[in-house]
Amino acid sequence: MAGIKDLVKDSSIYGLGSALQKFIGVLLIPIYTRVLTPADYGILSSLTTLGFFLSVIFDLGFTGAAGRYFFFAENDREKGKVLFTSLAVKVFTSILVLVIFLPLARRISIIMFKSDIYADVVFVSLLLLPVTNVSSLQDSIFRLFRQPLKYTIVTVLRSLLYPSLGIFFVVVLRKGVLGVQLASLIGTTFMMIFSFFFFIRKKYTWSFDKIWAKRMFIFGFPLIWYGIAQWFFSVSDRFFLLHYSDLKSIGYYSIGFTFSQPIDMLNTAIEMGAGVLILKTYHSEADPEKPRTKSQSVSYWNMYLLISVPIAAFISIFGKEILSVVTTKAYIPGALAIPFLAFSSIVMMNNSLTGFGMNIKEKTRPMSYMMIFCAVLNVAMNFYFIPKFGFVGAAFTTLFCTVVFWFLAHKGSQRYFYIKRKIVPALLYQGCAFSIALVVPVIQIYYNIHINIFILVALFLFTLTIPFLVGLFSFHQAGEIMMEAKSIINKRIGNFKSSSHKTD
């Protein structure tokens, strides 16, 4: 159970803020789905995809590089230089985004949507990119300094502000997709400024360092190609859907993605805690074999699988029922995408927890090659599966190529930093759970066969027994993990209540 206590301490707080944000986002779905059509969701998803592509290019890999070289810096002053140098580069590239792309907003609307009526939406979406670019660095600074409570304060405020603005622009003013983007722009800008004065500004050493800039660029440059490949790998399918199908299909895909968010929420909490803790242990451990680091990573992965797979199975098995309650009937086909996207998120997190050997050894180039290969594979598969199976085909290719990437990254990581794990039982666990999670919505939606709620409950309960049947855990090990997690979370909640009463 090496390192579980520290991971749960940090991740429980990161997770609290992230959970609140996702929960409020889910609460907005019944409102948005009654105001926005599946086609509107398709427009938003397409613009988000474009934004991700541009952000990858103009980030220059400096967010990842700052997180890596932060631990190389020997003192707080040097750490501050690393962070400020990254900020300066981001501000410069953000100005480039505005100068180059804002005048092209109308043209982009015509190219993407065959009409210029969305030019204003594109314009606001482009304005959002620089703000998001800087905010991503700020969020990582909370993590690097292990300030989960401060991060949660920011997240809670963000969670209250975003839906308030969303309801105002979308429901009250009836601005549609433009209102969603305006709410995001205003909310993100305000929170960026608040975070800066609340905590971030104190962590910068206000001096641009050319040496750090060069090191970060060398480290981050392959990550640009990694990020571009990741775009083709993970989100370019929206453009295939836009070309071969319609905006409604993108809306189904997007709603399936939205309801797989509990896994992404968990991923955010675990990754923000685990990444820093593993790097910190690795750099502080004198033994060249790094036994504590290896044991720590195995414990983290086991705990993650014990929690994430049941969540993915639950939202997949009960996907149709959840969509029937939360959205309108028009969105129910999106339940077919949930199993693929939820388990795809699990596999991608597997990569973070088992495939970090290349990153920890500063071998970013092989990782980029792997992502490029998987991106090409994904694009090639999309040419066949999306015209034939629509948004379900897009979801399938995402999962399949994510598994391929994890396999390659895990093999590459083991080459540079070998860690012994129970790989076969872990794969059997995930594979069996996914099979059950997929069969249910296929029978319900594709074949239009009703499944009794008691059968659904029984199937879900069976997935909980799989890790013990395949030998991944013993009941004693699982009990230890859950009891330790429970005790730490209860202690955190108690401390939070105590501090609240003192404040009152």
How would you explain this protein's 3D organization?
The protein contains 20 helices and no strands. With 504 residues, the protein is mainly alpha-helical. It has one domain (4-498).
How is the secondary structure organized here?
Layout: H1 4-32, H2 38-59, H3 62-69, H4 76-101, H5 105-113, H6 119-144, H7 148-172, H8 176-198, H9 210-234, H10 237-244, H11 247-258, H12 261-284, H13 291-317, H14 319-326, H15 338-354, H16 357-360, H17 364-416, H18 423-446, H19 453-469, H20 475-503
Jot down its keywords.
504 residues, globular, disordered C terminus
Provide a compact summary of the structure.
By secondary structure, this protein is mostly helical. Helices cover 83% and strands 0% of the residues.
Q: How many E strands?
A: 0
User: What does the average pLDDT come to?
Assistant: 81
Biggest sheet overview: none
What sequence of helices (H) and strands (E) makes up the elements? HHHHHHHHHHHHHHHHHHHH
